[in-house]
Amino acid sequence: MTVSDLTAPAQDYLKMIWSATEWSESPITVGAMAERMGVKPSTVSDGIRRLAKQGLVTHAPYGSIELTDAGREHAVEMVRRHRLLETFLVQILGYGWDEVHEEAEVLEHAVSATMIRRIDELLEHPTRDPHGDPIPSPGGLPNPPEGVRLAAADPDRPVTITRISDADPDMLRYFAELGLAPDTQLTVRAHRPYADITTIHLDGREVDIDLGSSAAEAIWVVGN
Amino acid sequence: MTVSDLTAPAQDYLKMIWSATEWSESPITVGAMAERMGVKPSTVSDGIRRLAKQGLVTHAPYGSIELTDAGREHAVEMVRRHRLLETFLVQILGYGWDEVHEEAEVLEHAVSATMIRRIDELLEHPTRDPHGDPIPSPGGLPNPPEGVRLAAADPDRPVTITRISDADPDMLRYFAELGLAPDTQLTVRAHRPYADITTIHLDGREVDIDLGSSAAEAIWVVGN
DNA sequence: CCTGAATGTTAGACTGACCTAACGGGAGTG
DNA sequence: CACTCCCGTTAGGTCAGTCTAACATTCAGG
Ligand SMILES: [Mn+2]
Ligand SMILES: [Mn+2]
Ligand SMILES: [Mn+2]
Ligand SMILES: [Mn+2]
């Protein structure tokens, strides 16, 4: 069975379950999945039961949701599709990196394996998507992600942005305005814990920028 | 309401009803639609009733199926999507013209209006798809098709292929092997009616080619 | 250790898409 | 002019996905 035999929601569920553990170890909840899919929790609960029946996840009622080996394989394939498509949309069709997520979220269920292969060749086998996320190799594992959340980065040490979560397009547009993107270099001035504010300085800029915690959680950086 | 609010089968039904009258005036039948969609006639009958309830077609039981103005608008939009996507797949992703139909048949339901616009711009507003079919302008009418079926073309007069039906990929591959494609120049030698064979000569070729009636019905030509 | 708020599950209903099986209409043939 | 056979429709069933409403479980604060 190939990933294309699954329904679009099933493909999305698997992708979300897998993605949840990519950048943090806390497992996904039914509520979080429902929120991201724009659907009620009962719908997700149902869907998970169907996935379990197909042997793609293990799940006991009220228990945690885990991918089986088969489920993980399909999930990684979907992540590969999503990220290749995002890269394609930016490089070939001139999308902004803040626009691609929603388009890829739909296209990933429609493109054939052939089209994915051709896109991969046209782009010369890219390894990072426009947000800095690693693109898994075909049938394989992703190049493991690097970096720490900006909110957890040491102050006064120059760092480079390696990825920015693509979950919120409005936030991405805000970052784009500020000049924050993968490969941007910056220095954390200070974290102000109770205000939940992280102040950063962009190399070659006049003023410092204050970021709230949702922003500082969405950006990953690595030391230079 | 935009075309994207319809289900994929509904979009396909509208497209097929519209396309049926593009190259011949005989209206589509439930059976023909079922065959092309690979479903049972009862499924199509059902679907048509739903389209009628939405005001997109008119249909009395056992009667003919006609698009309403709203239905025609959606149908033309889907034809535009399909043909732009086919052109895109050939020009940008290097597909063969015999490979694109099935991919476009799925993608047409998934791409956004934005993506269609960007593809149209990238290709510089193409007017013909890889099979020679006219690409309707946005929201508008197609450049009306030209030509007659090869089976009905006068013998001994040089003609040029303007379109080849994309319905059968195997036939397209056969044509590609023979060197038959849009813009190919040829001359009909003779029609042999009871054998249902049309003999053609390609300019600059040694041997003549015999085509059966299904092939001669799938190729449209225009006089030079 | 108890308990209530938050979270997740089940029940029941609806829709669209499909199927098989049974039935109906109509165009052409004898 | 009647009959037949082809085609289309309806009836009835399944499945996935969605919802609302009711119910169950968990676990953290008191
Ligand atoms: Mn998706
Ligand atoms: Mn991404
Ligand atoms: Mn086509
Ligand atoms: Mn289609």
Protein topology:
Two copies of one chain form a homodimer.
Chain A lengths: L7 H13 L9 H8 L3 H13 L3 E2 L7 E2 L1 H23 L8 H8 L5 H10 L25 E2 L8 E7 L4 H10 L6 E8 L4 E6 L6 E3 L1 H6 E5 L1
Antiparallel strand pairs in A: 1-2, 3-8, 4-5, 4-8, 5-6, 6-7
Helix pairs in contact in A: 1-4, 2-3, 4-5
Bound molecules: manganese (II) ion (4 copies).
Chain A binds a DNA duplex (30 and 30 nucleotides) through helix 3.
How does this structure look, described?
- By secondary structure, chain A is an alpha+beta fold.
- The first copy, chain A, folds into two domains: 1-145, Arc Repressor Mutant, subunit A, CATH 1.10.10; 148-223, Ferrous iron transport protein A (FeoA) (SH3 type barrels).
- Helix content of chain A is 41%, strand content 16%.
- Chain A is built from eight helices and eight strands.
- The first copy, chain A, has helices spanning 8-20, 30-37, 41-53, 69-91, 100-107, 113-122, 169-178, 213-218, and strands at residues 57-58, 66-67, 148-149, 158-164, 185-192, 197-202, 209-211, 219-223.
- In chain A, strands 3-8-4-5-6-7 form a six-stranded antiparallel beta sheet. A two-stranded antiparallel ribbon of chain A has the order 1-2.
- In chain A, helix 1 (8-20) packs across helix 4 and helix 2 crosses helix 3.
- Chain A starts with 7 loop residues before the first helix and ends with a strand.
- The A-B interface holds A 89, 92-95, 99, 102-103, 106-107, 109-112, 114-115, 118-119, 122 and B 89, 92-95, 99, 102-103, 106-107, 109-112, 114-115, 118-119, 122.
- The complex binds manganese (II) ion (4 copies).
- One manganese (II) ion binds at residues 83, 86, 101, 129, 131, 133, 166 of chain A.
- One manganese (II) ion binds next to helix 4 and helix 5 of chain B.
- Chain A binds a DNA duplex (30 and 30 nucleotides) through helix 3.
